Amino acid sequence: MSPHVNADPAELAKFSDLAHRWWDPESEFRPLHQINPLRLDWIDNLSPLAGKTVLDVGCGGGILSDAMARKGANVLGIDLSVKALKVAQLHALEAGTTQVRYEEISAEALAAERPGEFDVVTCMEMLEHVPDPASVVRACHGLVKPGGWVFFSTINRNAKAFLFAILGAEYVLQLLPKGTHEYAKFIRPSELAAYCRATGLDLQQTRGMEYNPLTRRYWLSADTSVNYLLATRRP
C-alpha cells in the first residue's frame, strides 16, 4: 500500500475478513442495519436525496449507499477494502439498485480528481478507523459543491463512550466483534467541529444516537456522549 494512503492496513484486514457477512442483518453488522433508517432519514430531511449526486466515503458493504440510491440519489460509494466493495457490488446487482456504483479509491485521491462534484457527501462510522481523520474531513470539503452538505458520524472519546461502545457493545452485549474499535481513535465532537471549521465547513446540526439494550432500539437525541452525527455545509 502506498505510504500516502490514509488507511490502517489492520483496519482494512479486519473488515475484509467480515465482508461476506455485511448484508446479513443478524451478523456482526446488525447495528449498522438497525441504525441505517435513522441516519438515512436524518440526511434526507436536511438535504432531500432524490436527484442528488451523492458520495459515500468509507462505504464498506454499501448499506447506506444502497439506501440513498433507493431514495433517488445517484450514489458513488468509495472504500479501500476490496472485499467489502465486491460484496457491495454483488448486492447492488442482486437487489437491482441501478443508481449506485462503487470504486476502490481514497477520499483524498478522489478529491484531487473530482473536486466540487457532489451535492452531498456522507462519511459515517469511518473517521474512528483512519490514522488521520482531519485529512478525510479536508477531502470531504474538497469533494462537495459550494452549498452542498457533508454528513459525519463517529464516536465520542470519554469514559462513558469507552464503557458503552467498547466494553458494552463488544464484550458484554457482543453487538460488535471484539477489537472493532480503539478508544484512542475516538473523536470528541469539539475536535470534529474544529476539523470542519479549519477546512471551511459550517456546522449546521449535531445529533446523538442512543441505544437501549433491553428493547434493542436505537434513536436520535440531543445526547452526544457516545455516538453522534454532525451535519455541515460548504458555503
Summarize the structure.
The chain is of the alpha/beta class and 235 residues long. The protein is built from eight helices and eight strands; from the N terminus they run H-H-E-H-E-H-E-H-E-H-E-H-H-E-E-E.
Q: What is the CATH third-level topology name?
A: Rossmann fold
Spans of at least 5 consecutive residues whose pLDDT stays below 50 are none
Number of strands: 8
Compressed to H and E, one letter per element, the order equals: HHEHEHEHEHEHHEEE
Main CATH class = Alpha Beta
Structural class: alpha/beta
The CATH superfamily turns out to be Vaccinia Virus protein VP39
Strand order of the largest sheet: 3-2-1-4-5-8-6-7
Number of helices: 8
- Note the gap between the termini: 35 Å
Helix amount? 25-40%
Mean pLDDT: 92
CATH architecture: 3-Layer(aba) Sandwich
**Structural Rg:** 16 Å
Q: Roughly what fraction of the amino acids lie in strands?
A: 15-25%
Please provide a written account of the structure.
This protein has 235 residues and is of the alpha/beta class. The protein has a single domain, classed as Vaccinia Virus protein VP39 (Rossmann fold). It is built from 8 helices and 8 strands. An 8-stranded mixed sheet has the order 3-2-1-4-5-8-6-7. β2 (74-79), α4 and β3 (100-104) form a beta-alpha-beta unit. α2 packs across α3 (63-70), α5 (107-113) runs parallel beside α6 and α6 packs across α8 (189-199). The mean pLDDT is 92.
List the helices and strands and how they pair.
Layout: H1 9-17, H2 30-46, E1 53-57, H3 63-70, E2 74-79, H4 82-95, E3 100-104, H5 107-113, E4 118-124, H6 133-143, E5 144-155, H7 159-172, H8 189-199, E6 202-212, E7 217-221, E8 227-233
Parallel strand pairs: 1-2, 1-4, 2-3, 4-5
Antiparallel strand pairs: 5-8, 6-7, 6-8
Helix pairs in contact: 2-3, 5-6, 6-8
